[in-house]
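From the shared-data thread, chain only:
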Amino acid sequence: MYDITENRPRQKVSDCCKSYGLYRVQKSVFLGDLNSNERDSLAVECEELVDTDRDSVYVFPMDEQSFKKVQLIGQAFDKDLVSDEVITKFF
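Structure, as C-alpha cells:
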C-alpha cells in the first residue's frame, strides 16, 4: 500500500510491485504472496524509488491464517484495475 505524490515514482513502485508478482486490488494497494526475503527486497527497492520525506509505502506481512480473517466492508476491489494475469495465491 502506498501514498506517493509524484506520478513517476508512483508508476515505478507500481511496476516494482508487479515485477514481484503482486496484483493490484486498488489504485495504490497490491496483494500477493512473497517470502520474507522478497518482502525485504521489495521494501528496499521501493525505498529507493520514493521521497521518504513526503511519500509512504507500507509492506504488511500477513500469514495465511490472518489473511483468511480479513473482513471486507463495502465493495470488493475494482476489477477494472486488475489487469495482471496473477490469480489468487493466498487460498
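The mean pLDDT is 86.
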